[in-house]
Automatic annotation (TrEMBL):
InterPro entries: Amidohydrolase (IPR017439), Bact_exopeptidase_dim_dom (IPR036264), Peptidase_M20 (IPR002933), Peptidase_M20/M20A_hydrolases (IPR052030), Peptidase_M20_dimer (IPR011650), Xaa-Arg_dipeptidase (IPR017144). PANTHER family: PEPTIDASE M20 (PTHR30575), XAA-ARG DIPEPTIDASE (PTHR30575:SF0). It comes from Branchiibius cervicis. Belongs to the peptidase M20A family. SUPFAM superfamilies: Bacterial exopeptidase dimerisation domain, Zn-dependent exopeptidases. Residues 170-264 form the Peptidase M20 dimerisation domain. This is Peptidase M20 domain-containing protein 2.
Length: 395
């Protein structure tokens, strides 16, 4: 397809977003004003689906996940998934800007619907809950929602624009040591001190850090360690997060930290329980063509988006990117010196700068998908990957 034709399609996407701009900003503000934690985002999901249904999308519930949804438009062979995430953080609301993420994703879906028939796509807007906790996108992968998807897109709120930013593989564990209580003065030898096990484990982890790979991160908080100083603690608990640049690296660090935890149990004579918190997050693979197309599109909006290939945080969009060619660019707006996961960052989520980011990101995502759908080479590449996935799944 010629450049002129691509420009014409992009212009139609932009015109659709101009028409929808007020509604998209109202959506962003409403989600921001009504923050809901993971798996409790009933209002946010309902607001998104109402807007999509009003534009002709068919809405379907996701069985077993009441705050997820699947909204479809069009009948084209090439399926474009737009991931809509809208969960907030405890105590600080949208300190990660998911109101911007959600509204920009809905906007991208609406922009793509305006040209869906012309470019031969089906638009699949997926409501993906609990990104901040257990990783709702993994449930949708497991349930088959990405089996037919050729490419997936979403943008993430940030203090500056960027494409290509990676994310670390992550897992979180609930750790419990069980011992035996006893009076610390009258019968200390009768007790088995669960807090001692935790102290030994923390010490072992601290020593292990010097020999872990440079970019691996281990974070620990102790959540309980006894109730009275004259009672030997019968139980201690902690939450541990492990991060590594790749899933393979995460596996190695998991084994090392698990050994540290077992050392604590052995030293204190306690029993150890390690329970995963939610799904593991995979590292993010940014699709080169889609990233470049997003950069090109954002120039139309006056944004010169840099390529930054350093590692960022962690996201379940990484899991999607391991299955489907994906992009997860940063859409920047003025947050002064605020950083993610703070109340300060949340306070900038409904500014004029953030509102512009909603519409600009929507345009960039939709235009990138259109560029892929209208390039014969890219379309063939993406559909071939879908066919390979079907073969692997036995479809």
């Amino acid at each position: 397809m010629s450049v002129v034709a691509d420009q014409a399609l992009s212009a139609r996407v932009g015109a659709e977003l101009d028409t929808r701009r007020t509604g998209l900003i109202e959506l962003s503000h409403a989600i921001h004003a009504d923050p809901e934690l993971g798996d409790q985002e009933h209002h946010a999901a309902a607001r998104c689906t109402r807007m999509l249904a009003g534009a002709g999308f068919s809405i379907a519930a996701v069985v077993g996940h009441p705050t997820a949804f699947a909204a479809t438009y069009g009948t084209g062979e090439l399926v474009v998934a737009v991931c809509v995430e809208y969960d907030a953080l405890p105590g600080i609301g949208h300190g990660c800007g998911h109101n911007v993420n959600a509204a920009s994703a809905v906007g991208a879906a609406l922009g793509l619907a305006a040209v869906a028939d012309d470019v031969g796509i089906t638009v699949l807007a997926l409501g993906t809950p609990a990104e901040e906790t257990r990783g709702g996108k993994v449930d949708l992968i497991d349930a088959g929602y990405f089996d037919d998807v050729a490419l997936a897109v979403m943008a993430h709120a940030a203090g500056e624009d960027a494409v290509g930013v990676g994310s670390l593989a992550l897992c979180a564990w609930d750790v419990t040591y069980d011992g035996r209580p006893a009076h610390a003065a009258v019968a200390p030898t009768a007790g088995v001190n669960a807090l001692d096990a935790m102290v030994v484990a923390q010490t072992a982890i601290a020593l292990a850090r010097q020999q872990l790979p440079r970019d691996d991160i281990v974070s620990v908080i102790v959540t309980s360690g006894g109730t009275a100083p004259n009672v030997i603690p019968a139980q201690s608990t902690a939450v541990i997060e492990l991060r590594s640049p790749t899933i393979a690296g995460l596996r190695q660090t998991q084994a090392r930290i698990r050994a540290c935890l077992e050392a604590g149990a052995l030293a204190a004579g306690c029993t150890l329980s390690v329970t995963p918190k939610g799904h593991e997050f995979a590292d993010m693979r940014q699709d080169a063509f889609l990233s470049s197309a997003y950069q090109d599109a954002l120039r139309d909006r006056g944004r010169d988006v840099p390529l930054r290939e350093e590692m960022g945080g962690s996201t379940d969009m990484g899991n999607v990117s391991q299955v489907v060619p994906s992009i997860h660019p940063m859409i920047g707006y003025d947050v002064q010196d605020a950083v993610h996961h703070t109340a300060d960052f949340a306070s900038y989520g409904t500014t004029e700068s953030a509102d512009r980011a909603v519409v600009d990101a929507a345009y960039g995502l939709a235009a990138a998908a259109v560029a892929a759908a209208t390039s014969p080479v890219q379309r063939d590449r993406l559909l071939a990957l879908v066919a390979e996935r079907h073969a692997a799944l036995g479809h």
